[in-house]
Automatic annotation (TrEMBL):
PROSITE patterns: ALDEHYDE_DEHYDR_GLU (PS00687). Pfam families: Aldedh. Keywords: NAD, Oxidoreductase. The active site is at residue 251. InterPro entries: Ald_DH/histidinol_DH, Ald_DH_C, Ald_DH_CS_GLU, Ald_DH_N, Aldehyde_DH_dom. Residues 24-480 form the Aldehyde dehydrogenase domain. Belongs to the aldehyde dehydrogenase family. SUPFAM superfamilies: ALDH-like. The keyword NAD applies. It comes from Salinicoccus roseus. The keyword Acetylation does not apply. This is Aldehyde dehydrogenase family protein.
Length: 495
């Protein structure tokens, strides 16, 4: 059933099966037109967050015993509601986030893809396993954990919310979702749409600032935290979870390296287009964007030439609602200023700064949170533009001498989310195995190389646990082993 989704849209908390009208709402601006309001989100109180947690805790008592068939049917109804409203949801997401309409549609596709994967595989993944041999019998159960607090970021808000909702509820957990204030509207609306298909209290949503996040991560009734966001926030969440030893899944920041080997074909136009997209999709505001580019010195000059040509062709900056636009504004003013600060630092250090892309409407561009996609050449390996995650439309291209040097540079980071290696496939795979990352892609990068059938997550300070795939689904259960040995006694114990 299609809903009527118009902006500015006002959303509210959904707690224990009811819409809870907030006393105070905050505006969410349209980053392409900051004077325009995309909608209003509720500034929920800590008391309302506690109410949502209490409702989820009470609902868990019965939901954990529900039949898998019932869980699947309910989730399928929620998925269908998203499909029925897919176009309007994409428009809303584009308006509140700033991502171009094709990108918003792509995020809806990724969201639905994993929700359907979870539905199709839930019975198999969460099935009780029985093993028996001459030594005895074991029953391995996958028990739901309890109340899950889910906190999603602003950069890929819907996909990074639904990837938590689907496996958590299918496993028999209950949940309280909190979206980012920088992209709250679509997540709140979709969460409510899904929640309406489940018993009261199984899925709840609240909005707010840090005080709400603190309650969701420290409340004694919360048994698991699923968080996607920055590494610094992840550290605070781990501290909050420590007092009650909560189960945590943390998908944190990444400063993702891309290595271009000496056998990479710089004349492959399709590959070079993929490289540009891997840097500037969603305006570079994705955790798995290629953010540090290391190119073998023997192909460096030609690589830069062909890269700039490809960038000029693909980068069309402007109104996110237009189909021809490939890059929209930065999501918020603070992030725009941070990226500009990195570029200014590069300029002060004498690096070669090159703006790329085409702007159709300069006046529109100047009135929003826009900036030209920027390539930095000649930077030092420890420059801020290299060492810090930009999370915006800027990237540095650097030289390396040989394979060992490339691996050393790629691994020189406290982060290790994704990476990519480009070149002759066998050679690239050999190098990929040496990279310290949770995911490494070959001859592609970013969303282009994502496969939701396999686990995704980081190493080092890029996180704990995995999302997507069977491994991601198992993050929402506790293994419970029931042993029935044939020999009940230990043979060496004296009578």
């Amino acid at each position: 059933m299609a809903l009527k989704i118009e902006t500015p849209l006002t959303v509210n908390a959904y707690i224990n099966g009811e819409i809870v009208e907030a006393q105070d709402h905050a505006p969410r601006e349209n980053p392409a037109k900051p004077d325009e309001t995309a909608g209003y989100w509720p500034k929920n109180t800590v008391g309302e967050a506690k109410q949502a947690i209490d409702s989820a805790d009470e609902a868990f008592k019965s939901w954990k015993h529900s039949e898998m068939k019932d869980r699947i049917e309910r989730m399928q109804k929620g998925i269908q509601k998203i499909k029925d409203n897919q176009d309007d949801l994409a428009k809303l997401l584009s308006k509140e986030h700033g991502k171009p309409i094709y990108d918003a549609q792509g995020e809806l596709t990724v969201s639905l893809m994993f929700m359907e994967y979870a539905v199709e595989n839930a019975e198999r993944v969460y099935k009780e396993e029985v093993n028996e041999d001459e030594r005895g019998k074991n029953i391995l159960r996958h028990d739901p954990i309890g109340v899950v607090s889910a906190i999603s970021p602003w950069n890929y808000p819907l996909a990074l919310s639904t990837e938590k909702i689907a496996p958590a509820l299918l496993a028999g957990n209950t949940m309280v979702m909190k979206p980012s204030p920088m992209a709250p509207l679509t997540v709140t609306l979709v969460t409510q749409m899904v929640a309406e298909e489940f018993p009261d209290g199984v899925l709840n949503i609240v909005n707010g600032d840090a005080d709400i996040g603190i309650e969701l991560t420290s409340n004694d009734k919360v048994r698991k935290i699923a968080f996607t966001g920055g590494t610094n926030t992840g550290r605070h969440i781990m501290k909050a979870a420590a007092d009650t030893i909560k189960n945590v899944t943390l998908e944190l920041g990444g400063n993702d390296p891309a290595i271009f080997l000496d056998d990479f074909d710089v004349n492959d136009e399709a590959a070079m287009r993929r490289v540009v997209i891997s840097n500037f999709l969603t305006g570079g505001q994705i955790c798995m964007i290629a953010k540090r580019m290391y190119v073998h010195e023997s192909i460096y000059d030609q690589f830069v030439e062909k890269y700039m040509e490809a960038a000029e062709k693909w980068l069309r900056i402007g109104d996110p609602t237009l189909e021809e636009t490939t890059v929209g504004p930065v999501n918020n003013k603070a992030q725009l200023e941070f990226v500009q600060e990195l570029i200014e630092d590069s300029r002060q250090n004498g690096y070669d700064i090159r703006e790329v892309g085409n702007v159709a409407d300069e006046e529109f561009f100047n009135n929003g949170y826009f900036m030209y996609p920027t390539v930095v050449l000649g930077a030092d390996y420890d420059a801020r533009i290299v060492a810090e995650e930009q999370f915006g439309p800027a990237v540095a291209i650097l030289k390396f001498k040989d394979d060992d040097h490339a691996v050393e540079l790629a691994n020189d980071s406290e982060l290790g989310l994704t990476s990519s290696v480009w070149g002759e496939e066998a050679h690239a795979i050999e190098i990929a195995k040496r990279i310290e990352a949770g995911v490494t892609m070959v001859n592609t990068a970013a969303i282009q190389g994502l496969d939701i059938r396999y686990p995704f997550g980081g190493v080092k300070q890029s996180g704990i646990g995995r999302e997507y795939g069977e491994e991601g689904m198992l993050e929402y259960v506790d293994s419970h082993s029931i042993n029935i040995p044939k020999t009940k006694d230990l043979p060496h114990i004296p009578q």
